[in-house]
Specification:
With 270 residues, the protein is an alpha/beta fold. Strands 8-7-6-9-10-11 form a 6-stranded parallel sheet, sandwiched between helices. Helix content is 39%, strand content 22%.
Amino acid sequence: MDIVTARRVVSLYEEGRPAVLCTVVEEIGSTPRSMGSSMLVFPGGKIEGTVGGGITEHRVIAEALALMEKGTGAEFYREALSATEAALEGAACGGAMGVYLEVIGRKRELAIFGAGHVGKAIARLGDMSGFSVVVWDEREEFANSENIPWGKTVCCPLEDYFKHAPDFHAGTFAVIVTRGHILDADVVKMTDGKKAAYIGMIGSRRKGAFVRDRLLKESVSKEHLDRIFQPVGLPICAETPEEIAVSVMAEIIGVARGADIPSLRNSLSV
């Protein structure tokens, strides 16, 4: 990676803008670019730098955009050029190259609805775990930077939330821990149709059934309700706000890392 790209990567993290860094890490035979060559791919397909141009670069860009759609992550992509493709690339003979792709710039985002004791504890642990934290509450005495200094606080009517906070995307993890069942249900309804890696709601299974029945009558999609993690968090018999935060963040990290959450829930319930 050259110094220009390195500085660009730093600025993307400072600005919170997503991109995919594509770096050639393997070259066999004749290839368009040598190891260490890098390219940044931005939403929409704009690029900075190059990994060789032509059909190879076109395919790498497509892989990068697909990876960005997931929100976070990395992958290794290997491209073997046929003799015909090699000729089009300007190479004397076919070769193979490996490109490492990594989503950069955007942190995983933790959206917490409810700034009470549990929401506050989750915000603190989420920040410690490397998430970009946003905490919403309509009560000014709770949703303020003095009470919750970890990340951003948003105090407004619920319907105005997305005017003041980032829209959900594939790297958003949302936790619903408001002051009551009705408000929790309103948050669930508001997030119908939104992309998210995880949406969890605090409360008993009885509460979950109540919210589900109400929202089905209000035409909230069954698919959305089915994806809600409820009760939220891994079943570790947590009682205090801090213990609940541990169970919630353990589940979120498990989802982010591709853990088998149903198996974890079942094994911990025994």
